[in-house]
Amino acid sequence: MPQESINKDNQELTMSLEPSESRKQPITLPKSGTGIRGLDEITAGGLPAGRPTLICGAAGSGKTLFSMEFLVHGATQFNEPGVFMAFEEKAEELAVNVASLGFDLNELQREGKIRIDHVHVERSEIEETGEYNLDGLFIRLAYAIDSIGAKRVVLDTIESLFAGLTNQAVLRSELRRLFEWLKEKGVTTIITGEKGEASLTRQGLEEYVSDCVILLDHRVENKISTRILRIVKYRGSIHGTNEYPFLIDEEGISVLPVTSLQLNHSVSSERMSSGIPALDKMLGGEGFFRASSILVSGTAGTGKTSIAGSFVDKTCSDGKRAIYFAFEESPRQIVRNMQSINIDLQSHIDAGLLQFSAARPTLNGLEMHLLNIVKLVEKFNPSVVVLDPISNLITVGSNSEVKSVLTRLIDFLQGLGITVMFTALTLNDNRTEQTDDGVSSLVDVWILVRDIESNGERNRGLYVMKSRGMKHSNQVREFVITDQGLKLVEVFLGPEGVLTGSARETQQLLEKTSEALRDHAVSRKDREIERKRFVLESKIASLKEEFESLQEELNKSYIEDELKKSIMDDNRRELTRKRDDLL
Amino acid sequence: MEEVKEDIWELRLYVAGKTARSVAALANLKKYCEEHLKDKYVIEVIDLLVHPQLAEGDQILAIPTLVKKVPEPIRKIIGDLSNEEKVLVGLNIRPAK
Questions:
Q1: pLDDT level of residue A6 (50, 70, 90 thresholds)
Q2: What is the least distance, in Å, from the CA of B2 to any CA of chain A?
Q3: Rounded to two decimals, what is the model's pTM?
Q4: Helix, strand, coil proportions of chain A in percent (round to 5)?
Q5: Which of B68, B78, B97 is best to mutate for the A interface (most A CBs within 10 A)?
Q6: SS in 3 state form for A77-131?
Q7: CATH classification of the domain holding B77
Q8: Which stretches of A336-455 are assigned E, i.e. beta strand?
């Protein structure tokens, strides 16, 4: 036996020397899952089982809700009954408060899964004389725990004791004893505490006796609130140390650790069309890479939303899903406006392929927007996500915050293989090469739409600023929005560069005219030649005629001579015969 | 008759086992009652180790706790009741100074 254990130790020792991730941990701290989305990831499994955890924060930061979710999830998901010892709210009040999250506390109490004990401390009723301890509380708690076999306990908030009882020394020592006792009992405990001025709690006691401290914060910046969660300490466990934004909605608390900035997502060389054939042509002929991020930026009214709309339309027509996050217009408005350029988004909505999510940026803080997007994306599982426009997000956060949020969003979406298109408004100045959100460096494809103002009219020009990993056109193309959708017009180069609008049309006309003139000139020359040929040919014919008559003349004299000769010959023969006869 | 009934002090002393403190508290209480409320009081001693379920009803936290339910108002006095003055004020036997 001893031999064996030594071997085991050696093995563990060598194992731990290996730097690989499969490092064996001899003792892992048992964890108690909270069932709160995302929190178990940050804490690597949940709260420390059988130990006290402090949840602290200011009023309204969600402490009670947090602890109630811990209990209810424990009872419903992990089969761990729980006791809620409420020092502030009555059982009925609590039940009503959490009913909005779909928790039926009364039912759970009837089933013996949760027990709520309201501890009421009324300062005016209590007189203190001499020594005492809090055995009464211990007994009550023990009774509640034992009556349902509870594994989880919430004390919300023990500070009320300090308000009700004056003997601080007794209270402090008793609370220490309480924590020890709870540990001995082996129940996982949450203590909530109001945030103090200089310390995490007002009494400065709970954070020291707790094995895990989670700070909830509710910040308001620019009149917009963001809820933040941070794990201040966690004895014996690794944990995420960042500030994580969290959301309280009809599904309770969700913490989404959208902070990983690992650039290790798989890439795809699959292409997807932008919905504008000419634009696809500019992008190496095939369109965007799947899971890439596309930024369409431009000044107001340059058709950014239309480009996004046509991309969504194409995606849905291919039978893929898309989510359109609109921060400026309502879904109906977008659908109606797209209709005018022959893009029917309503049919995609009806087919369940397209989902709109419209919210004013000021509705939430940035982090909340991110959480909402992430939640919706996870639920709907789209191939394409459009954010229109991201520039408005800047009204609720600073540049760096927007950038950080968008970085994480791109990261998250690329990890899922989702293509994302942002639209951004650029200010109408010479620095159109810069989006005010500073995201241009993050995206894979950047399409710039700008107005080109000349000759008393505004026209739209589109060009591909960058497109990672593919050949792309360097041309500024004129981009027209027609009843039949979006089109890129052929490039017309004038003496002063690319021509657009009427100038282009003029140039087109000019070219047509000159072509006609040229055509005309050509045909005149042709006819001249034809005529000359005709003249020459007739000349040739008359010469031929002349030649023939000459030849005939020649022939005639020749024949006459022959004839004369033969007649003379005949005459001579005749004469000869006649003479012979005479003889 | 009614007046007499109202004047009866119904006192409950919550303890947890026979600790020195609870014994002292009970002794102190009895002494004060004999002195000031002779024949006008009932003392009920509740041992929470035996009846833990009773702690919730009277909102007991500290041990020992003396609860005066009648006459109104309800008052709780916690501790070993060593300070006679405070106990008497707490029980409305003597008006607070």
A1: very low
A2: 26
A3: 0.67
A4: 45, 25, 35
A5: B78
A6: CCCCCEEEEECCCCHHHHHHHHHCCCCCHHHHHHCCCEEEEECCCCHHHEEECCC
A7: 3.40.30.10
A8: 354-358, 384-388, 419-425, 445-454
User: For residue B97, is it within any domain?
Assistant: no
Task: Kindly list the distances between the CA atom of residue A520 and the CA atoms of A481, A500, A514, A515, A527, in Å, as whole numbers in the listed order.
Answer: 36, 29, 10, 8, 11
B56 in any annotated domain: yes
| Closest C-alpha to B13, from B47, B36, B38, B53 | B47
Q: What is the pLDDT of residue A264?
A: 63
Cα separation values, B28 from A163, A494, B12, B68, B86, Å: 27, 110, 14, 15, 12
A110-139: pLDDT as tens digits: 988 899 888 888 777 788 887 888 888 888
The CB density around residue A111, as the number of other CB atoms within 10 Å, is 13
Chain A positions touching B56 (Cβ under 8 A) are: 117, 140, 143
Asked whether residue A205 carries a pLDDT value surpassing 80, the answer given is no
* Exposure b/e, A50-76, CB count within 10 A at least 16 = b: bbbbbbbbeeebbbbbbbbbbbbbbbe
Instruction: Please say if the pLDDT value at position A530 is more than 70.
Output: yes
Q: Are the C-beta atoms of residues A121 and A164 closer than 8 Å to each other? A: yes
- The tokens 């963001």 sit on which residue? A226
Q: Which of A298-302, A439-443, A540-544 has the highest mean pLDDT?
A: A540-544
Helix (H, G, I), strand (E, B) or coil at A256: coil
| Distance between CA atoms of residues B88 and A160, nearest Å | 26
Residue B3 placed within a domain: no
Q: List pLDDT tens digits, range A167-201.
A: 888 888 888 898 899 999 889 999 888 887 777 77
How many domains does chain B divide into?
Answer: 1
ipTM above 0.90, yes or no: no
Chain B residues whose CB is inside 8 A of the A127 CB are 75-78, 86-87, 89-90
- Whether the pLDDT of residue A7 is over 50: the answer is no
- How does the average pLDDT of chain A come out, rounded? 82
**What angle is formed at CA A90 by the lines to CA A89 and CA A93, rounded to 5 degrees?**
85
Residue A533: pLDDT band (50, 70, 90) is very high
Q: In this complex, do B79 and A117 lie within 8 Å of one another by their Cβ atoms? A: no
Q: Is the pLDDT of residue A535 over 90?
A: yes
Beta strands in A270-353 (DSSP E): 271-272, 288-289, 293-298, 322-326
Burial class (CB in 10 A: 0-12, 13-18, 19+), A165: buried
Query: In which domain, by residue range, is B39 found?
Result: 9-90
Q: Closest approach of chain B CAs to the CA of A71, in angstroms?
A: 21
Q: Is residue B75 part of a domain?
A: yes
- Give the whole-number percent of chain A exceeding pLDDT 70: 89
Question: What domains sit in chain A, N to C, each tagged with a CATH number?
Answer: 26-261 (3.40.50.300), 271-490 (3.40.50.300)
Residues B89, A133: C-beta atoms closer than 8 Å: no
| pLDDT for the residue numbered A26 | 53
If one compares A137 and A363, the residue with the highest pLDDT of the two is A137
